[in-house]
């Protein structure tokens, strides 16, 4: 890709000034993806008003690779630090290294943060930078995700209120019923009546079945 323009720029960031370049290049969706993949978002910033990207000076080796005419880029003044600036050779300044599974196999299109990463690496600066929700771009459990949302004061879109249990009624013991068994007096007039009725019914039934049996020739 060829740069359209490139100028040196210093932007204030976290109380320090950050040097880099404001660059413009023709729009190309494929290249834009490549550009974003190569430069971690902590090192780049889109300036819509200028239709330009600000890219941190740490990314110069990557920019050299991405733009064929990088030689047009103005030199930046040397940094006011005593330490010599070196680009991490492990990640070429991107802050990302290929992810390896537990067997040491490199997983395609999967990245993990390099030790030089300004936010997540073994860098003392990381505590000063807020971690954003979109930084968690991996699968996590409901409770871990809920904890993240809670710690950033953002309502959890996946929150499910705890199920309320049906109200329990206080236990009341059943009243004790005392059953008393009595022996009926078989000599009452009502009982006598019933006995007579039963005898009549028995006689009629016997007569009826005898009649039916005779008709069928069973007797
Ligand atoms: Zn690195």
Structural write-up:
- The protein has a four-stranded antiparallel sheet, with no helix packed on it. Strands 5-6 form a two-stranded antiparallel sheet.
- The longest helix has 27 residues, at 189-215.
- Among the domains are: 5-72, no CATH class; 96-151, no CATH class.
- It is built from four helices and six strands, in the order ββαββαββαα.
- It has 219 residues and is of the alpha+beta class.
- β5 and β6 form a beta hairpin.
- It has helices at 29-38, 60-66, 142-151, 189-215; strands at residues 5-13, 16-24, 44-47, 52-56, 96-100, 106-113.
- 11% of the residues are buried.
- The mean pLDDT is 83.
- The protein is 25% helix and 18% strand.
- Residues 88, 90-91, 95, 114, 116 line the site of zinc ion.
- Zinc ion (ZN) is lined by residues 88, 90-91, 95, 114, 116.
Structural key phrases:
alpha+beta, four-stranded antiparallel sheet, two-stranded antiparallel ribbon, 18% strand, rod-shaped, binds zinc ion
Provide a short characterization of the protein structure:
With 219 residues, the chain is of the alpha+beta class. It is 25% helix and 18% strand. The mean pLDDT is 83.
Fold topology:
Blueprint lengths: L4 E9 L2 E9 L4 H10 L5 E4 L4 E5 L3 H7 L29 E5 L5 E8 L28 H10 L37 H27 L4
Antiparallel strand pairs: 1-2, 2-4, 3-4, 5-6
The structure holds zinc ion.
The site of zinc ion (ZN) has 6 residues, from loops.
SS field, number of helical segments: 4
Mean pLDDT: 83
Portion of residues in beta strands equals 15-25%
Bound molecules: zinc ion
Distance from N terminus to C terminus (CA atoms, Å) equals: 119 Å
What fraction, in percent, of the residue positions are helical? 10-25%
Q: Indicate the overall shape.
A: rod-shaped
Uncertain residue ranges: none
Helix/strand-derived category reads: alpha+beta
Oligomer: single chain
Strand order of the largest sheet: 1-2-4-3
Give the biggest sheet.
4 strands, antiparallel
Tally the beta strands. Answer: 6
């Amino acid at each position: 890709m060829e740069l359209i323009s490139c100028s040196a720029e210093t932007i204030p960031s976290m109380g320090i000034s950050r040097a880099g370049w404001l660059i413009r290049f023709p729009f190309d969706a494929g290249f834009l993806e490549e550009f974003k993949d190569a430069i971690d978002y902590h090192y780049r910033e889109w300036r819509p008003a200028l239709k330009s990207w600000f890219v941190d000076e740490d990314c110069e080796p990557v920019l050299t690779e991405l733009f064929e005419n990088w030689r047009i880029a103005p030199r930046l003044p040397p940094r006011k630090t005593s330490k010599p600036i070196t680009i991490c050779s492990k990640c070429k300044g991107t802050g990302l290294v290929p992810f390896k599974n537990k067997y040491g196999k490199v997983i395609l299109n999967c990245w993990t943060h390099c030790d030089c990463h300004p936010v997540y690496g073994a860098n003392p600066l990381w505590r000063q930078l807020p971690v954003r929700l979109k930084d968690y771009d991996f699968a996590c459990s409901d409770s871990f995700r809920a904890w993240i949302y809670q710690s950033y004061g953002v309502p959890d879109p996946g929150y499910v209120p705890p199920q309320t249990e049906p109200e329990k009624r206080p236990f009341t013991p059943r009243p004790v019923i005392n059953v008393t068994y009595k022996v009926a007096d078989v000599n009452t007039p009502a009982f006598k009546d019933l006995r007579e009725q039963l005898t009549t019914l028995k006689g009629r039934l016997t007569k009826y079945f005898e009649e039916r049996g005779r008709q069928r020739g069973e007797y």
